[in-house]
Amino acid sequence: MNARQDHIAVYTFVVFLFSFSLFCYGFFPLSFSPSTKANLDELPQGVGNASFSGVDYKPKISRAVLMVIDALRMDFVLQEENFQFLNQLLGDGKACLYRLQVHPPTVTMPRIKAMTSGAIPSFLDVILNLGSPEMKLDTFLYQMKQRQQKTVFYGDNTWTNMFPETFHRQGENSDSLYVNDFYKGDRNITKFLKLELEMYDWKLMILHYLGLDHIGHVEGPFSGKVPGKLKEMDKVIKTIYQTMDKWKQKYYTKPLLVITGDHGMRDSGGHGGSSHPETIVPVVIVSDQCAKSEETFLQIDLAPTMSILMGVAIPYASIGSVIDPALKMLHRREMLHALYYNTQRLVTKVELIINNKFTKSEWQNSFEEAKQLHQKFMKDAADISAYKRTVLLYTSVSKKLTQLLISSYIRYDILFIVIGMVMALFCAAIAVLQLLQDTNASVLTLQPKLFPSINCMLLSFLLLKLLSFEKQSSAEPSNCFHAVLVSLSVVYFTLWAILSHLLKSMQASLWTLLKSASLLSLFIWFGTSFHCVSLGSSSFVEEEHQTWYYLTSTIMILLTLKEVSVMNNTIGALSRHTKSDASLVEVCKEERNIFCAGSIAFLCIHVTVRRFNQTGDKWQHLPDVGDWLSKEEHKMWLSLTMLVGLCYLVYQICYMAGLLTTVLSLTASLLIYYYRAASGTVSIFGLSASNSAICLTIFWINLVEIFFIGFLPMMYRAIMGRTSQKRTGELFNNCIIIVALLSALLHKPHNVLLVGALLATSRFVAERIDRIADDKHCSILLKVITHYWLGKTFYFYQGNSNSLASIDLNAGYVGLNNFDMLRVGLFLTLHTFSGPILSFLLLLHHIFSDNERDVKHLPVVTNVRERMLTLTNVLITVPGSFFITVATVLRDHIFAWTVFSPKIIYEYFTVWLVLIQVMLVWLLLPKKSCASV
């Protein structure tokens, strides 16, 4: 049986994607949080031989307001000039401020889940954040509803999606994900708040304000709009407090106001990562019956604390401790009862995990001592020392148990992890071996023998059966289960058959190829190997941009030096030739000098644009050029930077476009500038701009016209039966121009320069390679890998990182007035991955340009499609399989969820994008190409 190498490459990549999916399914399981509901019948009736009275656990407040200010950072609350009234309450002892630690991912939906249930959400909840499925876990909201305590809600519609039948009255933001809404949604919440303060049928009111988060996404935490928003929130707090104070004086009630943030905000704006400003949020208890504390509590501690205050059962899934300083309003017997109740729950959960080991631990000894002192205090309420010691022991034991439960909360599915990891390693090995094959051999002969093949499949099936034994023990294996095992066995057998035949047909060893390779090729493979190995370090993953900056800068310098060497050899040869014209030698020298000056200037441009956006982890908080340009007082410089970027982009488009396409591109660029001016980001130097909707409509029309300029002639020639390779490439070039203009529209104004810089860098690299490459094989190798590096480099140039917080949500709403999943997702993908997408399209453009040259008399020897697919496989599968192996080994590492997990999500999404690229290569590229460079 014969199999073409390009078919093997595509099959291997698809299997790698499948194996990566299996790995992710096992690495990101849903949290072990049963949907069991708690009830008050489970309350402890006594401790030792001392019984509790029926009034020890009852509501401690008459009604409460839970005010969630989205993306409220700890330092925002401490700004006295913005939170003047709140800081006055804190100074007068009428409120207490505590620190809460938030577990990643720091996005809204999982944070609401943590606050209401006390459970640790799954990391994949970061993806479900857009959909916000109905909450199945037990929450204190569910418990309040069971006790006929009415709850009203106003704010982020994530709550109403998660709790569809919970609220007595509700008024949600119709479009909470529309990040350009800074004020309208919050004003609506405040309007309903004032109406609800006049009603008396609710027990708990939840408010979720979104304006601060939206400002952070668009302009960052140091925006000039932030102080005004904080003052607006301070006025809301004052309104609630004054109304509650009237209730206390008139009705002698005990109302309570709780103010907190669902997550923080990083210094560069956005959230989703694990930096300190994102994971430390405040919680303010507005009450004169609370105690100050410098301790850092957990966000999951809110659920049991609110349950105790409202007098309802603590949610079954809760593993949080209690924020005990906030419970100062409780009498001593009530306090000990509440602490014992929650600690006993945690003890029961821990015993299910570690079985008999708990009885031999120091925590058990401390818990038993606390119960004895608790019993002693119930007999002698005047024993203050026993009370204080009991509180200390209960709180310390519960906190230790909480940490233990957190560490065991997420349970990996080792079966899927191992199957996916091994399959991925097979794919990586096949990709490397394909690269070592004879470049002219486009067909691999597969001749598996019958009995060894059957034995191999049976062995694979038995191994998979053995691995899945634990799963089978919980349920009777079905025919579908066995069919899946057989299918996986077939996949493994196919991979093994391909791998073994590639080993037999390998023409040269890796070492032999490296010895005969040029300096450029050696550096290419060194860089690829170094990047792969660097993924084994969490620090290198956090600062991955440094790796790409070094590799790209170095390869550009090496290419420049190589061409200068070629020029010097040419000049030397002409100088030695007696018949050479002296003026020709001078022209060559002048051309060399111009080339050197241009190359130095080009490298300086890269050094400059690198400073536009700080990224990574160590220096991300430092101000950069983009921060300086984004300030209101520097709007003129930002406008000039964007104008230069758009002009440079149009200049680069001229190299691949005709006159009409260039004019339309120039018009589109002016419309991009006008749109940004209409939104107030840049200025038109004294003129005013308005009605951005019309300019965007004209912009879209321009893009359609650019597309049809290439499409209609091609369709005409197809109908008339004419073919033209050059004209066919025009449509593809126009598609690149459309993507480039779209990227310029979605980028921040100061990042527009990056689009033109990428086009220029691609042309610079391709021209250098065409002049210095030894043969077609070397040319394809250098172009594919350097363009892959360029895509990664520009990905980080625009401020992206391996943290989820660096995703610029504002780019998804350009030209939109509401949330649309398809368009927002498309815009976000194009903006975030514009570097890799554009660099790949430019690579295809250069390959097409090579094939359009007049090389009719040259022999066709190179399979371009096969070579590109093989190189793409190596670049994706080798580091990908290595990284998931590292993540498997270090799955219990302290950085597993803060560093490795976000990187896995990015890599998985990248593999899907590369799959589209693989399909384009397979469909568009010719099988053969000429031998000339």
TrEMBL record:
Belongs to the PIGG/PIGN/PIGO family. PIGG subfamily. GO terms for biological process: GPI anchor biosynthetic process. GO terms for molecular function: CP2 mannose-ethanolamine phosphotransferase activity. This is GPI ethanolamine phosphate transferase 2. Its main location: endoplasmic reticulum. It is found in: Endoplasmic reticulum membrane. Residues 502-918 form the GPI ethanolamine phosphate transferase 2 C-terminal domain. Keywords: Endoplasmic reticulum, Glycoprotein, GPI-anchor biosynthesis, Membrane, Transferase, Transmembrane, Transmembrane helix. The chain crosses the membrane at residues 7-28, 302-323, 414-437, 449-468, 480-499, 519-541, 658-677, 697-719, 731-747, 824-848, 869-890, 905-925. Pathway: Glycolipid biosynthesis; glycosylphosphatidylinositol-anchor biosynthesis. It is a multi-pass membrane protein.
